[in-house]
Amino acid sequence: MRIPLAGSASAPPVEHARLARLQDQGWRLTQTMAGVDGATTGDAGYCEAADWGACGLAFLQDRDGVTHQLDMSPQQAAEKSDLELLLDLRLAKGQDFIHTVYGSFSLVFIHKETGRFEAYRDHLGVYPLYYTVSDGAVTCASDLRACLHLSGVALSADAIRIADFIKGDEVDFDRTAFDAVLRLPPAHQLEPANQTVSPRRYWKLEIPQETVSTDCAEQLRDALQAATLACMRPEGSVGAMLSGGLDSSALAGLAAKQSGAPVQTVSFVYGADKAYDETRYIDAANETFGSIPHKIAIAGAPPLDDLATVLDEQMDLFLAPGLPKARQIYPHARALGLSAVIDGHGGDEVISHGYGRLVELATHRKFSLLYREARGAAKVHSLPFLALFSSHIAHYSGMGPRNPLRRLFLKLARYQTKRSSISGWSGTPISLITSDLQERIAATERYAPDPLLKTKADFNRAECLTHLRALNAPLMAQAFEVFHRSATAAEVLPRYPFFDRRVLSLCLAFPAEMKLRDGRSRWILREAMRDILPESIRTRADKAEFGDEIFDVVRDFYSDKQVSFFEPMSDFVSVDAAEQLRKQVIVREVTDVAAIRALWRLAVLSYWIKGLKGWCDAQAKGILI
Length: 625
Prior knowledge:
The chain has about 625 residues and is α+β, with helices and mostly antiparallel strands. Helix content is about 45%, strand content about 15%.
């Protein structure tokens, strides 16, 4: 949607354009505009009431609650889309409507006569919203390509975002890879301010004041069941992604329990010769749930040469090495007639592994409990147990820096870590950024560690603080955008029951011992899923690891490359440092995960830079879309 800004002498006239579709998707529109005659269209749809119009994406997780606020009958509500209900609620409640809404949305409301607008992105950022201001107008869209096409802004790289990408961080909520286009952060609204626009936070995820310590498993089960049920409309067109892990299996089981017909599940299988094949768990889940299984045979991770296709779809940079493979599930789901899939993404962060409890146990010097819980954590993540146990005692048990016992534990931790480590990389991801760019962005300060736990009081509540930080991280919201682009390209929408705000608030209110207990992480979810999940899944302590797969595709990709491969990236990448790392990985002198992921990111960046030239050419010809 391109909207003139009041007071801009160069503001263009209000656009009136025909509806244009992207990739022939009937519900995902790319050309949006506002007109006083009501001829307004939007990404998912357009509606109007009184003097206002609304366009965008909307999926309500509490339609009944909204219709109750509007005092509507079931018959009246059934005739309205989620977008229409949100517009009615905005008109009834004013801007305070946003505090009573549960769901995912990317919305623009506009007054048809005055042109005043308001844009909103949902509380958790499940649906994206991009915007740019140029030539006296603001352009908003839930699709990055549409925003670039409609605004006509020059396509150039944001050097800060690229440096962050090379480093492997998502530091900002608002940057995209294009310096002229911003993303609206989660839980923010956008309003006109003189001749520009101003984002404003309307909500913040916080730790509840009261702790939930009774009937925890039952409350979590009820909350997840309600959230899953809300994600299953329209009935028959919503399936479930099933990996065989705890999170996806829990949601598929809850969906099957509440569905009037067998639920279709979609899974990747790799063959019995692969250590990370989950077929036995997938089969156990489908048999227990009575679902209709669909297995997608995958030989392995796609070669990095396929990144050109992925980058053309994404346009933005992404920190998801598994995406080239994971995105294949969406067209398969669509071919089955599914319009949406229930996705367990983020279950780890929402429920929390509970590892902050290790800090709390060390702080209170409960060493026997620490020993038990650390063993469980080490087993799940293949970490040296004694290193984990010893380092927590050394750092958090209150011993002074010169205490000989503390020195002993630190020495033991270092020894165990070194003994178990694989070939390490002497460099760092920052060393791959050119020195000029490092200086320009003040890299030392930008990437300086930000310790979460600074005081004894912080150590005493380490779990809830680390839990909250994980959920509030920029990477969480931007992961939603990555999945959204791949899914919508296949005309499918992912739905995330774990990211119902009521589920999040409940999980944040659980005490640490509900998350990590008896050596088992996410203990409370395991308890909540009794009699729903097969015991082999409910009690499993491991999870599939794909590190070897990524290492293989990175080595294969770079095996025939030369230093010239990095030269087109020389504005951002230290060519010499990148080439040295490439050589070390090829001969297996360096095998650690940080190095492999750093090279993977440089491969992505190389294709993005190539794509940028193609997108600029397409824009000049008016064929970006």
